Amino acid sequence: MSGEATVEIDNLSVFYDGGARGRIHALDRVSISAGEGDFVCLVGRSGCGKSTLLKTLGGFVPIEAGSSVTVSGTPVRGPGRDRGMVFQEYALFPWRTALRNVTFGLEQANVEKGEAEERAREYLSLVRLDGFEEAYPHELSGGMKQRVAIARALVYDPQILLMDEPFAAVDAFTRQQLQALLIDVWQTVKPTIFYVTHDIMEAIYLAERIVVMSPQPGKIHQVVPVGFDRPRDPLDSKVTSLAQDVRDLVFHDLESGSRQEKTRP
Predict the structure, then answer these.
(1) H helices of 6-141, where?
(2) How far apart are CA 232 and CA 243, in angstroms?
(3) CA distance 259 to 237
(4) pTM (2 decimals)?
(5) pLDDT at position 262, please?
(6) How many CB atoms are closer than 10 A to CB 150?
(7) What is the 3-state secondary structure (H, E, C) of 16-40?
(8) Distances from the Cα of 176 to the Cαs of 167, 171, 172, 206, in angstroms?
(9) Which of 117, 145, 214, 228 has its CA 20 to 30 A from that of 238?
(10) Which three-class secondary structure state does DSSP give residue 74?
(11) 178: which residues sit within 8 A by CB, 6+ positions away?
């Protein structure tokens, strides 16, 4: 972790109404910090609270009494322009061009039109969409749509970029391209990134630290530093060894239970 801490999550517990299932305990006493320019990947099985943690940091989930979530010392009370968010679904306006999708939030913030367009073009260039400013979403591939979404999230110059499985809906080749692009963008503008993924190799390729979460309720099981130089080769024996270690952490309770079953008389 580098620099002064920009994110502090302390003793975070989250409950929500599960209807017929009653009150659901989604997160239990989660504590984690991230420094300026850090890149943190959250991994774990479905239901371990990865997305809930991300949405809480984004200000979309109420914070329970006794929990604390701060960005640069300021408590999170709701969404804010210091945090940009990218979802798996692109959520682009189909009637607006790529440029106008990126300028939309700036327009709502009453940024002067010329400045908004200049900033939008800068970030579309950053995600390598020069020449596609006037293209509509239906004219773009899935990977290009997600690049527009990334540019839209970054155009505010947020301190924190929150990404919830942003590349899960694209093919494997496009996903590799987007991963490499994201590393370039991160190294250029250096936001602090929290990134949710089910893909352990993706987490190793992207992250400085991997937070392994366990489910029911969601807790932090272990934080794993990556520590490899970039670019990272997925065929490197150190990478494959770490991937196995992280996989063992993700499935630790299932595998220990399976071993116990096998040893019963």
Answers:
(1) 50-58, 98-108, 113-126
(2) 13
(3) 27
(4) 0.91
(5) 43
(6) 26
(7) EECHHHCEEEEEEEEEEEEECCCEE
(8) 9, 9, 6, 11
(9) 214
(10) strand
(11) 143, 146, 147, 166, 167, 170
Nearest to 219 by CA among 44, 88, 22, 72: 44
> Which amino acid appears at position 128 of this protein?
R
Place of tokens 């919830």: 164
In single-letter form, the type of residue at position 200 comes to I
Q: From CA 25, how far away is CA 44, in angstroms rounded?
A: 17
- Residue where the block lists tokens 């440029």: 99
* Residue 136: both structure tokens together: 């509509």
Pairing type for strands 209-214 and 74-75 reads unpaired
β-sheet bridge partners, residue 160: 83, 192
pLDDT tens series, the chain, 265 aa:
444 568 999 999 999 887 777 788 999 999 999 999 999 999 999 889 999 999 999 999 988 888 999 999 999 999 998 999 998 888 899 999 999 999 998 998 899 999 999 999 999 999 999 999 999 999 999 999 999 999 999 998 999 999 999 999 889 999 999 999 999 999 999 999 999 999 999 999 999 999 999 998 999 999 999 999 888 888 899 999 999 999 999 998 765 544 444 444 4
CA distance 93 to 136: 9
Amino acid letter at 147? R
Q: What are phi and psi of 88, to 5 degrees?
A: -65, -40
Q: Which residues contact 203 (CB under 8 A, 6 or more apart)?
A: 41, 43, 195, 197, 210, 246
